[in-house]
Structure formats: structure tokens, C-alpha cells
Amino acid sequence: MKRPIEGGVSFVVPVYNKAPWLARVLEQLARQRGDFEREFIFVDDGSTDESLAVLTEATKGWPDVTILTQPNKGPSHATNRGIERARMPFIKFCDADDLLCDDATGALLRALTAHQEAVLAYGDARIYDDVTRLDLEADLESSSVQIFDRPLRRLLRNNFGGPTYTLMRTAAVLACGGCDERVPLTQDYSLALRMTLEGAFLHLEAPVAFLPRFAPGRLGDDKARETRDTITSLALFLADHPDLPWRLKQFACRRVAGRCRRFVTRHRRSGLAAATRLYWRAHLPVLRDHADFIKRCAQIVR
């Protein structure tokens, strides 16, 4: 494993069939402000469109660019492959259809370097319809920062969003094991769960990322699968860490059962009775296996 270079950022970008969006995404990556070393690691996850060609042509002349290719294995595997190649002490993730504002990386880096106890910093995101109306040049220097010393409870209460919003310490990412490849499509949530055991989280109260409202083929558009895989990621995390505080695991069961019931109510007719039973059961002590209880919730979301 290569020794990290002090003070720098590794940009890790998994790519799968994002040709229509890549040019603008790459432009914003190149515009990241700040006096820090940087490298760019792109992992083409078996794209069948022109993504690899666009990526190769657009990054000609960039310093420290690595383009990896592989058969399609999902974003968790692709992200982990990028993590393995990261040489800098910080990793900035970016989805290949999201836009970073010019000061996103610099602002998150300032926050993390000012709080040595923190391992992850994240900002806010905005949905956009018209890219020409975005303010991507805003200076985020004066943005407020919140510190969460118990980030797992915070994450269980409210998932803060996707990888484009975050900057992480490379050592902590490696220590926690990266993304959980047992759930190929929820790389952001499984990694965030694991990172909660490494240190505090920071919230930068400013928009650092802009997401297109419509991006054909986006994995997150399949709400059933996204919800099911997110819940499964949590079940696996609890199974991997059975010594977590009982109250925290109980809280996780209540949150998941409530989310499951809301999903079934909004999107499905079948399964409502089972979801309701689990919802009320979660308000009683779960005396045996919290991970198994959460797996049962995931099975209802179809």
C-alpha cells in the first residue's frame, strides 16, 4: 500500500454509463479551488456507452490521472477499487452525474483539518433543472460547521445523502474496510455506517453538490431497490457489530420499521399488514437479534 502524501486529496469517481453528464462533471472537478495536492482516480465499471472515451479524451493533459476499467460489478466494488489506489490523506468522492461547486473540496478540507477528531465532513446538496442557473462559484469560507460526536445515531435518524457531499480521511476509510460489497448498490450508506465507528462527523451548512433532477439510468431512481438495499446494509452492519449498545440497536429497529411502513404505504398495496406489525413490534424491546429484525423489514420492500 502506498504511503499517503500529506495535505492532498484523492478524487475517486466511479463511472457507469454517464457519457451525457461527464464533460460537465469533469469541468467542475478541474475547477476545485484550493492550495492542496490532488490526484484523480476514475473507475469505469463496465460502461456500455461512450463514458470511457469521453473520460479519456477530457482528462488528457491532467496531472495525476488514473483511469481503471473493469467488468460491471456495481458502485461498491468500483468505489473500493478507487480507494485502494488513493495516495492522498483525504478522499473526495463524486458521482459521475453530480456537480461540485468550485469551493466544495476546499471548504470540506478546511473543516476536517480544523477538527482532528473528525473523520468525515459532508455538506448539503441541491436538485437542479437548469445547469445554467446554478451558482457554482460561491465562496463557502464563512459556512457554519456542526460536530456530531455520536455520528451513528445521527445517521440512523437521517441519512445525510450521497458520496458527492462528502470528504473523508483516507486512513479511516481503509481502517473501516471501505464499502460493503455484499450490497453492490449502496456504497455511500454502507461506507458511512462503517465510518461512524472511526470518529466524529462534521456537517458543513452549505450546498457543495448539485444533482440533476432527471438522470436516466440513475440507480437511485429505483426507490424499492434503494430502500431495500439501504435497510440490508444496516442489517449487515449490525450483524458485523453485535456489541453495539442495545439502545442504539433498538433505535435502529424503530427507525427502519417506520421507514418500511411509510414506503409500503406510499408505493405498495401488498405487505402493509406485515409492515404495520413490524412497526408496532419495534416499539417493544427486541430481545434477540436486531439484525434479523431489520432483515425482515427489508424483505417487505419489494
Quick recap of the structure?
The chain is an alpha/beta fold and 302 residues long.
Mind explaining what this structure looks like?
There is one protein chain. Helix content is 42%, strand content 20%. The N and C termini lie far apart (41 Å). By secondary structure, the chain is of the alpha/beta class. It is built from eleven helices and nine strands. Strands 1, 2, 3, 4, 5, 6, 7, 8 and 9 form a nine-stranded mixed beta sheet that branches. α7 (187-195) runs parallel beside α8 (223-240). β1 (9-15), α1 and β2 form a beta-alpha-beta unit.
Measured on Cα atoms, how large is the radius of gyration? 19 Å
Structural class: alpha/beta
Fraction of residues in helix: 40-55%
Number of DSSP strand runs: 9
Which word captures the global form?
globular
Averaged pLDDT, please?
A: 92
Order of helices and strands: EHEHEHEEHEEHEHHEHHHH
Q: DSSP strand (E) fraction?
A: 15-25%
Low-confidence stretches: 1-5
- Count every helix, treating DSSP H or I runs of 4 or more residues as helices: 11
Distance between the termini: 41 Å
Largest sheet: 9 strands, mixed
Topology of this structure?
Blueprint: E1 9-15, H1 19-30, E2 38-45, H2 51-58, E3 65-70, H3 75-85, E4 90-93, E5 99-100, H4 104-114, E6 118-128, E7 145-148, H5 151-157, E8 166-169, H6 170-176, H7 187-195, E9 200-212, H8 223-240, H9 246-267, H10 272-281, H11 290-300
Parallel strand pairs: 1-2, 1-4, 2-3, 6-9
Antiparallel strand pairs: 4-8, 5-9, 6-8, 7-9
Helix pairs in contact: 1-2, 7-8, 8-9, 8-11, 9-10, 9-11
